[in-house]
Each structure stands twice: as structure tokens, then as C-alpha cells.
């Protein structure tokens, strides 16, 4: 059956990658622009077609100025599971809502979009001709029309079993396209300064959107690396700041990551990366600092903390300390003498993420968001392994597979409570704490899986 028309109903055409990240991104952006996610669909799964109710066209346009997960948005005029249902739905759409776009002084064109099937030009023309009952009074202009309308047909997700007829057919007025071109224009391949773990451009923008980063925000990355996440946040008008324990990375020194290049050049640094995209005015600073040590006065400084902590795979997990065993508990926060030269010690993943959550709870403004990656060994993963904090509410938890046995999860949390000193150790009382410590062996489990895979490949080659 066709869905009955309601006011402010829109159709989103989604990109078919990073499927788990799409829904949290759209929800976050709607919230950012004063809307609320509302849909009659029970599930989204892998489908590229989403029907949403959005308060206004302005919010729909603002959404598309930010999203990298959606391709286009349309004002939905009709929907059916067959041509007949579509035409019936269109005939029930209020004429007064059509007239402003169909009057005699306007120009228009109609496009046909199919998912999982290719139509001939003759078939496309046949579908356009079937819409003659609509009260179009303007002139067709295929090059620069004032209004664009689309018929969108969904032939399912299986390319090996394409049905004769579409599962769903939609008709709508095109409103705006998303920001998919940012993925190419900000590609890491074109960037001045990169490292072994520079974040993919598309994921960087998704993280900024999950964090609801907006103009004039102050965004912080405590594991800044080569600054890929700062670039995405600065693109959306936020002022960016970061720290990292690696002196050479912060200052753009040492061996180069690019092939056939031995040493980094003078223009290979984080500031140069922002300058490359005309974003240098948003660059506050980047400092050499240890994320495990408190270097900030108490207060709320940041609207968002967006970061990709090291997992111990391509970048080591490190903190500063002394050769002696560092006492646990409150003593570890005591200052070292000025003459002390710290050395690099291992930094357990569980400690790193607990420090990160405490830091976010202390320094984020209320309503501010923490977005970070959590590596997991898939066979042992449970939701209880996600770090917990009384000041932070879990907003979304999305998986990106790294291998058959490992993945990383993009965790988004929002500060909902003012930080108090007793909150710093509240995780010790949580049921999540013990299973969470399993992350400390992630590196060993990762490489054990790699070793097994290599051995299996060598065995099959010998056979």
C-alpha cells in the first residue's frame, strides 16, 4: 500500500557505505538544527531510501550542507509499491503544495533514478510520459531548470537477483545534495602532512557530525597525530586545538610516511594542513603533551572532543613516567621535580579510555560531545565493554570491521551532568569495569589473528 501524504515528508537517498554510521549522523544533525528524528520506517538496514518527517525545508537544506552519508533529499510527493499505487498517492497530494513549482512561468525537468537496475532511455521516457496527469504548466529545461523532480525506483539490495518490478517507487521534488564531494576534495592522498594512522576524510567528517560540531565551537583532540580530525571540524567553522605525546609528529619532524620520501619537508605539519584548505584561521595550537597527565586548570573549555586514540598496532600506546613503578591511585597525579626527565612507558588501553572519559567529563560544556574510536576483539565483544561515566550519556555505538576478528567502534557520548570529584573513580563501582579491562590485550589478540591468517595462507600455498 502507498503511504498517505503528510506535511513535511521527505525522502533521503543515502550512500551505500559506512552503513552503521548513517542513522546516528542524520539524528545528530537534525538535533543540531532544531529538528527531531521522526520516521514511519521501522528499520533502515542497508536500504538507501529513508522517509523522514522534517519540520521545515530550511532544516532539510541545513542537514544536506553537513551530511556525508546522504546523497540527496527530496520533498516526497508520492510513494507506492507499484506504478498504480504511486499515481494514486500523487493524486492525493495537496494541489496547493504543487502549484508554486508547476506554474506557467517556471522551468523544470524530471529525472529517473534506479537503485540496483539500469533502464534504457526508452524505458525512462515511458515513465516520464506516465506522469502527464500532474498539473505541469511550465516549460521543460534540461540544462538549467528552476525545479527538478525525480522518480526513484528501488529494486532491492541483491545484484544477483534483480526483480522485474521495483519494490518501491518514489516521486519527489529535489531539495539539495549532500556533501559527498568533501571525501574526494579532502582526500588524505592529496594532503601535505600525513602519518601511518591519518584518519580517512569521510570518517573524519562523520565524526565531526556525530559530535555536532558547529561554527565558533572549540574542538579538542588529545591524540591529534597529523590533525585529520581538526581539519574536518575546522571545515565546519570550529576553532581547533590538540595535543600529542610524539614531539616529532607535533613539529612535523623525522622520517616521512610517503613512499620514496626519506624525511619530512618544512611544509609538513598540522598548521600547513589547515592552510592547504584555507582553514588556518581556525587553528588555535597543538602542543606536546601526555594525555594521561592533567595539564589543564579545572573548568569547561570544549564544545566537543573528537579523537582517535592509538591502539598499539601502527602507533604505540605511550605515556610519560619514570623507570620506577608509578604508584596507583591519587599519587600518580603528583608533579615530578623540575629536574626529572620523563621516559616513555606503556599505557594500558583501559587506563587510556578511562582517562579520556574523565577528561571529557571535566572539560566539556554541558551538552558537549565526546566522539572516539574503541578497538575490540570481535569474538569477545559485549556492550558491557564500552567505557561508562556518570557524567556522560551514550548516544551511539557503531562498528567498523578491521578484520575477521577485530573491529573498532565509533562511540559518541554527551555530557549530561556537571563533573564532581567523586565521579573520577565511579567506574570502579561499575559492572562494566572488569570486562572493559579486556581491551588491554587487544594488541596481542590482533597480532595472534594476523599470525594465524598468514600461517593458513602459507599452508594453502604449499598445498
UniProtKB/TrEMBL annotation:
<keyword id="KW-0820">tRNA-binding</keyword>
<keyword id="KW-0963">Cytoplasm</keyword>
<dbReference type="GO" id="GO:0008168">
    <property type="term" value="F:methyltransferase activity"/>
</dbReference>
<dbReference type="GO" id="GO:0160102">
    <property type="term" value="F:tRNA (guanine(10)-N2)-methyltransferase activity"/>
</dbReference>
<comment type="function">
    <text>Catalytic subunit of the TRMT11-TRM112 methyltransferase complex, that specifically mediates the S-adenosyl-L-methionine-dependent N(2)-methylation of guanosine nucleotide at position 10 (m2G10) in tRNAs. This is one of the major tRNA (guanine-N(2))-methyltransferases.</text>
</comment>
<feature type="domain" description="Ribosomal RNA large subunit methyltransferase K/L-like methyltransferase">
    <location>
        <begin position="190"/>
        <end position="320"/>
    </location>
</feature>
<dbReference type="GO" id="GO:0043528">
    <property type="term" value="C:tRNA (m2G10) methyltransferase complex"/>
</dbReference>
<dbReference type="InterPro" id="IPR016691">
    <property type="entry name" value="TRMT11"/>
</dbReference>
<keyword id="KW-0694">RNA-binding</keyword>
<dbReference type="GO" id="GO:0000049">
    <property type="term" value="F:tRNA binding"/>
</dbReference>
<dbReference type="GO" id="GO:0005737">
    <property type="term" value="C:cytoplasm"/>
</dbReference>
<dbReference type="InterPro" id="IPR002052">
    <property type="entry name" value="DNA_methylase_N6_adenine_CS"/>
</dbReference>
<keyword id="KW-0949">S-adenosyl-L-methionine</keyword>
<feature type="domain" description="tRNA (guanine(10)-N(2))-methyltransferase TRMT11 N-terminal">
    <location>
        <begin position="9"/>
        <end position="180"/>
    </location>
</feature>
<dbReference type="Pfam" id="PF01170">
    <property type="entry name" value="UPF0020"/>
</dbReference>
<dbReference type="InterPro" id="IPR029063">
    <property type="entry name" value="SAM-dependent_MTases_sf"/>
</dbReference>
<protein>
    <recommendedName>
        <fullName>tRNA (guanine(10)-N(2))-methyltransferase TRMT11</fullName>
        <ecNumber>2.1.1.214</ecNumber>
    </recommendedName>
</protein>
<dbReference type="GO" id="GO:0032259">
    <property type="term" value="P:methylation"/>
</dbReference>
<keyword id="KW-0489">Methyltransferase</keyword>
<comment type="similarity">
    <text>Belongs to the class I-like SAM-binding methyltransferase superfamily. TRM11 methyltransferase family.</text>
</comment>
<dbReference type="GO" id="GO:0008033">
    <property type="term" value="P:tRNA processing"/>
</dbReference>
<dbReference type="InterPro" id="IPR059073">
    <property type="entry name" value="TRMT11_N"/>
</dbReference>
<keyword id="KW-0808">Transferase</keyword>
<comment type="subunit">
    <text>Part of the heterodimeric TRMT11-TRM112 methyltransferase complex; this complex forms an active tRNA methyltransferase, where TRMT112 acts as an activator of the catalytic subunit TRMT11.</text>
</comment>
<keyword id="KW-0819">tRNA processing</keyword>
<dbReference type="InterPro" id="IPR000241">
    <property type="entry name" value="RlmKL-like_Mtase"/>
</dbReference>
<dbReference type="Pfam" id="PF25904">
    <property type="entry name" value="Tmrp11_N"/>
</dbReference>
Amino acid at each position: 500500500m502507498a503511504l498517505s501524504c503528510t506535511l513535511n515528508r521527505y525522502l533521503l537517498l543515502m550512500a551505500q557505505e559506512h552503513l552503521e554510521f548513517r542513522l546516528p549522523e542524520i539524528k545528530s544533525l537534525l538535533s543540531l538544527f532544531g529538528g527531531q528524528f521522526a520516521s514511519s520506517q521501522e528499520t533502515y538496514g542497508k536500504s538507501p531510501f529513508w522517509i523522514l518527517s522534517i519540520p521545515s525545508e530550511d532544516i532539510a537544506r541545513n542537514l544536506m550542507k553537513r551530511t556525508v552519508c546522504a546523497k540527496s533529499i527530496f520533498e516526497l510527493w508520492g510513494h507506492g509499491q507499484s506504478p498504480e499505487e504511486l499515481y494514486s498517492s500523487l493524486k492525493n497530494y495537496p494541489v496547493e503544495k504543487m502549484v508554486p513549482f508547476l506554474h506557467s512561468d517556471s522551468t523544470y525537468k524530471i529525472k529517473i533514478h534506479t537503485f540496483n537496475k539500469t533502464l534504457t532511455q526508452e524505458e525512462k521516457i515511458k515513465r516520464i510520459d506516465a506522469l502527464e496527469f500532474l498539473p505541469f504548466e511550465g516549460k521543460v529545461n534540461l540544462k538549467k531548470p528552476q525545479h527538478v523532480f525525480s522518480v526513484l525506483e528501488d529494486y532491492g539490495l541483491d545484484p544477483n537477483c534483480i526483480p522485474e518490478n521495483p519494490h518501491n517507487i518514489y516521486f519527489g521534488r529535489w531539495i539539495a545534495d549532500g556533501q559527498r564531494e568533501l571525501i574526494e576534495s579532502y582526500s588524505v592522498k592529496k594532503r601535505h602532512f600525513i602519518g601511518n594512522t591519518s584518519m580517512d576524510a569521510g570518517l573524519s567528517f562523520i565524526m565531526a557530525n556525530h559530535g555536532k560540531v558547529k561554527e565558533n565551537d572549540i574542538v579538542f583532540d588529545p591524540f591529534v597525530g597529523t590533525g585529520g580530525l581538526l581539519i574536518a571540524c575546522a571545515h565546519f567553522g570550529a576553532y581547533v586545538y590538540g595535543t600529542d605525546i610524539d614531539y616529532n609528529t607535533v613539529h612535523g619532524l623525522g622520517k616521512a610516511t610517503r613512499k620514496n620520501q626519506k624525511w619530512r619537508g618544512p611544509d609538513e605539519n598540522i598548521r600547513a594542513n589547515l592552510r592547504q584548505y584555507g582553514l588556518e584561521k581556525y587553528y588555535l595550537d597543538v602542543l606536546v603533551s601526555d594525555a594521561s597527565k592533567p595539564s589543564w586548570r579545572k573548568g569547561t573549555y570544549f564544545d566537543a572532543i573528537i579523537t582517535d586514540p592509538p591502539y598499539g598496532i601502527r602507533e604505540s600506546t605511550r605515556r610519560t613516567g619514570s623507570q620506577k613503578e608509578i604508584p596507583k591511585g591519587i599519587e600518580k597525579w603528583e608533579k615530578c621535580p623540575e629536574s626529572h626527565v620523563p621516559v616513555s612507558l606503556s599505557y594500558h588501553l583501559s587506563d587510556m579510555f578511562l582517562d579520556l572519559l574523565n577528561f571529557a567529563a571535566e572539560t566539556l560544556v554541558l551538552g558537549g560531545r565526546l566522539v572516539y574510536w574503541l578497538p575490540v576483539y570481535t569474538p569477545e565483544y559485549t556492550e558491557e565493554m564500552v567505557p561508562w561515566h556518570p557524567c556522560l550519556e551514550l548516544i551511539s555505538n557503531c562498528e567498523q570491521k578491521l578484520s575477521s576478528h577485530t573491529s573498532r567502534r565509533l562511540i559518541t557520548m554527551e555530557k549530561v551532568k556537571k563533573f564532581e570529584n567523586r565521579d573520577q573513580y565511579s567506574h570502579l563501582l561499575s559492572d562494566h569495569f572488569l570486562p572493559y579491562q579486556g581491551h588491554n590485550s587487544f594488541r596481542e589478540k590482533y597480532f595472534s589473528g594476523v599470525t594465524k591468517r598468514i600461517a593458513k595462507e602459507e599452508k594453502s600455498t604449499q598445498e
